[in-house]
Amino acid sequence: MVRTSSYCEKSGLKKGTWTPEEDRKLIACISSHGCRNWRHLPKFAGLSRCGKSCRLRWMNYLRPDIKRGNFTEEEDNIIISLHESLGNRWSQIAAVLPGRTDNEIKNHWHTNLKKKTKQVTKIPPSSPVEQKETQNSKAEGCDPKPILTQNHQILESTPRSPQPSSSKVSDLAIFDSNNMTMGQDGVTSVNFSGANFWTEPSVTDTNDAYNVTSANFVAPKLDDDMILSPHSPVSSAEVFFPFMSYEEDCDGLDWLTNLMEGEHLDN
DNA sequence: AACGGAATCAACCGCGGGCAG
DNA sequence: GCTGCCCGCGGTTGATTCCGT
Myb-like domain: from which residue to which, for each copy (predicted)? Predict the structure, then answer.
């Protein structure tokens, strides 16, 4: 199947899975130039990719504020609830779940939640199965109804087990605990040494607890000898970090600690 | 251990909307 | 108002991984 795109019509442009080297180039380019023009960005970055592909990679994977990890019960409930009212408007649903991309939510819906909702509609309310599920929910302390914080923000996530793929961000991320700080609001932020990553973040959130600004978000300095892939030695700890928010006693910090201790590199 | 089907998820594509000229 | 460019969205594909036999 050969389809053309107004965005990627040029032949010779690379397609498929992104390599760590391409990721590094893209991050470096956005770091220095920002991402106001996706069409021209690949040229500056030295990438044989179309702008659309770069944008997608950034928005769905490399963006610093992406929360990595399994969806929580709470997030599932919110997605289900919002899907009932909004339908397949994944971007709007994603807006309520900071750190989650529309693509991720969409995939999660099709792979997990769709079945879940079908089960719920098929099974009579008084069925033993549902009763059991309800009991489980209660036992786990999960409210079956969506729980939204005052500003519609989910602050927790369970860690997602890393997958062995060369282009996964979990492979790329190395953390420096010295650069992690916990704000008064319980939000973890990370300052990287190096130049300002982004003087004008394109990804902004009106949510105070989630705002990523140049003040609290300084990106890694991408030296030539700095390698983000776990397949090669890392010369500095000041590397890219998926931005996330946690409550103080959240398990997510344990996950971070594990990552920092290199558990994600054990493959 | 090997195989095949199922599940997962990153990435692709076309389309529509916004905006500048 | 029209046209072209660019961006973002949602549907879909396909490579990879998982899991049961």
Answer: 10-62, 63-113
